[in-house]
Every structure is written in structure tokens, then in C-alpha cells.
Predict the 3D structure of the following.
Amino acid sequence: MSDAPSTLPPEILERRERAKAWFEALQARIFAALEQLEEEAPADLYPGEAGRFETRPWTRETGVGGGIGGHFKGRLFEKAGIHTSAATARFSPEMAAQMPGADKDPSYVSASISLIIHPVSPRVPTVHMNTRFLSTAESWFGGGADLTPMIAEQRSQEADDAVLFHRAMQAACDPFDAEWYPRYKAWCDEYFFLPHRNETRGVGGIFYDRHNTGDFERDFAFTRAVGEAFLDVYPKIVRHRMSEPWTEEDRREQLVRRGRYVEFNLLYDRGTMFGLKAGGNVDTILSSMPPLVAWP
């Protein structure tokens, strides 16, 4: 990456600033929602003090920009990371060859939010969400959200939590285009698949990339709707599950399923690879790793 300033037009920089402001506002709201759940969690299942987010601002080593890392360890949520970032930089020749519009000019701007939440309880699903804006000579949004239950009885798209989660993602898509949810659901199922295991990582959700209808305001509104849908549905799932007791067998199953998370993120996840190659913050990029994992 180069430290040279962006040559992209001012309206692109203004769009990046709007996206950055939205992602940071959403980050603060998710902080508050998770801290509230920490307060509500029953003390008999989750002893100790409720956790609070620790924010760690960081600055890019290449280009211009940085972000706010939100790191969390609590009694209900064993580990969570909710991070925002923004950048003005240039792609390396290798990465420019893979990005639309970068062959004309390797300058780019970006803004994003990314989160991963690993609950203590095996009965409460792990969840991932990210949305981002990226612009070279072309602009687009990307991201999505997916749910990963840990217990076998919950690992079906017909299970209660999966149905609720998918209903929320569909509600984010349908006001914009009724074709988006089935398309992005199928993309999610395909993307979060572990070929070496011949299985999906969880029960899916939606996944989209290089989303550009030609109408920035519509696409930005859709990306905001995905964030709002996540903020609404995941706390509902947590409240529904967090009072359920669990067994040592459930915990062992949870740790094994977390291993699948590690395998996917290190072997296949494009976001992890992009962040590391683009000079992102290693601590935030790898904070998706669960705190405890087991392989049978």
C-alpha cells in the first residue's frame, strides 16, 4: 500500500465520511445493547460482574486512516469484537488487479463495521456481521450477517433461532428488492461453506458484495437496514436463550463447533485476507478467533 493521497473525486470522499459516521454510530448502539444484556443475564448461570467494552483507537501503518476497536469480555459474552475502520490509500498492484475500477486508478477509500460475538452459553448462538463501503473508480457496498448455533438441535435453518434471524434479514431486503433476499441467502450458504468438512459454518443469513445498483442512496439505505435488522434480532435471540441451563456435553460441543469458525476464518474468509493485505489492524482482524476451542 502507498501513502499517496487519494485522487478520487470529492463526492466519493463525502460518501465515505457518511458511511464512516453511520458505522461508528451503529457500533456505539451495539455496545450499549450488549452491555444491557450483560446486566440482564441471570446471576446463577453467569456469576461475576457485567462486562464493559474497551475501545482501542488505532491508526493505519499504510495510507491514511484507522479505526475504533471495541473489545469485550464478560460473564454472558465470553468474547466479542465490534470494530470500525476507515481508510484512504492505494492498492498494491496485486490487489488492484482484483478490484473493479482499480486498474484505472489504484486509489481507494473505505469504511466498515465488523463484529463477532462468542457467548459463554452453548445455548446462545455465535453471530457475525459486517457491512462496508469501498470505492475505487467504482463504488459498492458489501457485507451481511450470519448465525452459528453451537448445539446440534439448533443447527437447522428450520430451528426457531434460524427462522427468526432469516426473517429479520429478509425484512431488511424486501423493501428494496424482493429478489435480494433469496439471492443473498444463497450466496451466504455458498460462501460460509467449509469444503474440507463438506458442511456449512452455521445456519446462514445473507451475504453480498460489490453491491451497486447505480443508486448510492438506495444502496446505503439497504446497508443501514441490514445493521438495524441485526441490532433488533440478535438481542431477541440472546434473551430467548440465555436463561437455559447447559451441560458439560453442550460445552464440549460448543468448543468443537468453534473450531469450525477458526478453520473458516483462517482458510477461506476473504475479509480476513483483505484486512491483513490492506494494512489493517491485526488485533481487530483476528479478534474473531474464539477464546477457547477444541478439536476432537
In short: The longest helix spans residues 10-40.
